[in-house]
Amino acid sequence: MLLGHKAGDNTQVTALAEALGWPVQCKRLFYRRWELLTNRLAGTRLAGIDRAASSPLDPPWPDLVITAGRRNEPVARWIRRRSPATRLVAIGRPWAPLEAFDLIVTTPQYFLPSRANVLHNRLPLHALSAARLAAAASQWAPQLQDLPRPWTALLLGGDSGPYVFTASKAAALGRQANALAAAQGGSLLISGSARTPAAAWEALMQEISVPVYRYRWQANQAADNPYVAFLALADRLVVTGESMSMLAEASATGKPLHIFDPGDAARWWRYRHSYRFKPLSHHLAMRLAPRRMRRDVGNIQRALVAEGRAVWLGQAESAADPIQTGTDLEAAVVRVRALFDDAG
């Protein structure tokens, strides 16, 4: 499996690789600053990665490569050139032609067509098992036991695509989450992530007056991260809506789920932060790019709300049954195994 710089992509790749139950090697890739240019011009070469920092790519070549994200695609296809029998599985939305992959596992935020090699799932893949939740709950419950119940977990993402998590948005989220917890006489369990801007974190914390346990994400401290424990122990969950992985994991718990809309009004061009490179390029792509190269995470947000699986933050809680997201992972496993059944 090929792992890159995005935690959400890595989570899905790892979940599928582990669910297959086959021997697996993890290849972690690091990229050069100009990788976009070299990948577009050089195609299936390795010019876009820092080979000295990345895991070695040597034979024997694997039977299967699982990848996600634009930056990893040239590497997967480079391996295929050296080993034509290797199967390629992409998660999300590939930039290369769809026929370059044996299987593509995608979700509604992308606009991929119906094809024989495209599996359309409802939510991103994850490996949030009952055993993992129980273990995290057992580890963290003693540290949280003095906080008054009920517990509301506030799970923070950050900048992503068209969404810019500004200090003003974070402050508004902090006020709403604080009011939700205060109305219940309970506490907040707040977890940041690698994408949470420092200014947004500080602005949000200034709005919190209820009892709180806060975790500010730090690199290389995964063992101290209570994120999974918060999913297991909280009575309700509040998630910033730009993170598809957090939405999938939160909805899988079956607990009341509140989505904070991190977007701006329809007239996005009125906001200065919309002219940063990533949000501007996204808005232009949504208008000008071919349909399959577009991305709208609102498709998943709206579906969860329409089905009663979640509510927008500020609305009354939903009592719907949890989405059985395990079936998405099972469907992907079946399709991957079929690639080898067909080959005998």
Give a quick precis of the structure.
This protein is α/β, with parallel strands linked by helices.
Q: According to CATH, what is the class of the largest domain? A: Alpha Beta
The average pLDDT is 89
Return the CATH topology of the largest domain. Rossmann fold
Order of helices and strands: EHEHEHEEEHEHEHEHEHEHHEH
The structural class is alpha/beta
What is the molecular shape? globular
Largest sheet: 6 strands, parallel
Task: Write a concise keyword list for the protein shown above.
2 domains, 11 helices, globular, 344 residues, 6-stranded parallel beta sheet, alpha/beta, 4-stranded parallel beta sheet, single chain
Describe what this molecule looks like in 3D.
This protein is an alpha/beta fold. The protein folds into two domains: 2-126 and 328-341, 3-Layer(aba) Sandwich (Rossmann fold), CATH 3.40.50; 130-324, Rossmann fold (3-Layer(aba) Sandwich), CATH 3.40.50. It is 37% helix and 13% strand. The chain has eleven helices and twelve strands. The chain has helices at residues 7-20, 35-42, 73-82, 130-144, 167-184, 198-205, 227-233, 244-252, 277-288, 298-306, 326-341; strands spanning 2-3, 27-28, 64-68, 87-91, 103-106, 118-120, 151-155, 187-191, 212-215, 236-240, 257-260, 311-312. The strands form three sheets. It has a six-stranded parallel β-sheet, with helices on both faces. The protein has a four-stranded parallel β-sheet with strand order 3-4-5-6, with helices on both faces. Strand 10 (236-240), helix 8 (244-252) and strand 11 form a beta-alpha-beta unit. The longest helix is centred in the middle third of the chain and has 18 residues, at 167-184. It is globular, with a radius of gyration of 21 Å.
